[in-house]
Design brief:
Length: 256
């Protein structure tokens, strides 16, 4: 039979375990929301970058067209001047300038073609991104709604559990609470552990650290006197009534 003191400890532990579960669900919900927001922000940044690339391409396109047109005007001007030159040197100079301008324009036209191809790609991507953004935005809103529901449920559950925790602690002495909290801080999770049969049934172990329990410790637990701690992890040990028959009993030794 579990003592009243152990029952109080187990009641408090059950509440704290439930509170830990709430905290994990809240943390998971916040992490999920952060990841969702990060995803859409990354997507929006990608759209901004692609728009900037398109704007840059359009500016370069305009600059190239102006340069090409300017050189074409120069070629026309130099061509007209060739009819008025007086010497071969002047003729050759104009011809070289014309060839030079045409060569530069060929390079600029090749660059312009590349820019135009890039523009088409970016414009096509912009159209697809708008559709993709709508999908991602809908997913984010769905996640926000789910996270909000989770957090609201956790808040309600925590309020109820905190009330139960205060009630459970109110029924315990200060020394017992300090011992419980000290173990919980050191070990986390469950400060109270069951003694359970190990696989094969030949030994018994602590349900938390899984280290073998000595027969003398089992005797002390059965006495139901002072609370007994696991020699390995320091948790408070108990045996449930349903498990008593499964836990091997220490063999009494006859005095010699």
């Amino acid at each position: 039979m579990i003592t009243e003191e152990l029952q109080k400890l187990l009641a408090l532990q059950a509440v704290d375990t439930a509170l830990d579960g709430c905290a994990r669900r809240e943390a998971d919900a916040h992490a999920r929301l952060s990841a969702s927001h990060a995803t859409i922000e990354q997507f929006r940044q990608q759209i901004k970058d692609e728009k900037r690339f398109l704007d840059d391409a359009l500016k370069e396109h305009k600059t190239l067209e102006i340069d090409i047109k300017g050189r074409e005007e120069q070629v026309k001007k130099y061509t007209a001047q060739m009819y008025d030159v007086k010497t071969n040197k002047e003729y050759t100079t104009l011809k070289d300038e014309i060839e030079k301008a045409k060569g530069e324009n060929m390079k600029q036209e090749e660059r312009l073609l590349q820019i135009m191809i890039r523009e088409d790609e970016l414009k096509g991507a912009a159209g697809r991104r708008a559709q993709d953004l709508a999908v991602v935005d809908a997913e984010v809103k769905k996640t926000e709604a789910e996270v909000k529901a989770t957090l609201e449920a956790c808040a309600a559950e925590k309020a109820d559990l905190e009330a139960k925790r205060a009630e459970a602690r109110g029924a315990m002495g200060a020394g017992l609470i300090r011992r419980y909290e000290r173990i919980r801080e050191a070990r986390g999770g469950s400060p109270v552990a069951r003694i359970v049969a190990a696989p094969g049934g030949k030994e018994v172990v602590c349900s938390e650290c899984h280290i073998t329990i000595r027969p003398q410790i089992i005797v002390e637990v059965h006495k139901q006197g002072d609370l007994v701690s696991c020699e390995s992890c320091g948790r408070i040990l108990y045996i449930e009534d349903a498990e008593s028959s499964e836990v091997p009993q220490p063999t009494a030794t006859q005095p010699g």
